[in-house]
Recover the amino acids of this structure.
């Protein structure tokens, strides 16, 4: 399987988010470190935002890559092909 920057980035961000959530859950159950718990939960929210931003940015890049530029419409491409194609008069010569 080929290396995928998107899969690696998504896996890394998801693993970090899962680790942060597990740490927050452990702190909520085991300790009374309320400020630390709040900071870890804020970090989890930031990681969620970063994961969503990463996925959205990647989707935007794929959409931009797959859509043709405005100058390359089907009509223009077809017209250019007709201009290049030999005509019956040019073949006889």
């Amino acid at each position: 399987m080929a290396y995928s920057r998107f899969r690696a980035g998504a896996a890394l961000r998801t693993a970090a988010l899962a680790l942060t959530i597990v740490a927050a859950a452990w702190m909520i159950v085991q300790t009374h470190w309320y400020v630390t718990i709040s900071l870890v939960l804020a970090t989890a929210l930031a990681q969620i935002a970063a994961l969503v931003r990463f996925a959205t940015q990647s989707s935007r890049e794929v959409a931009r890559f797959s859509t043709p530029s405005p100058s390359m419409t089907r009509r223009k491409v077809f017209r250019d092909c007709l201009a290049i194609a030999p005509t019956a008069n040019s073949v006889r010569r």
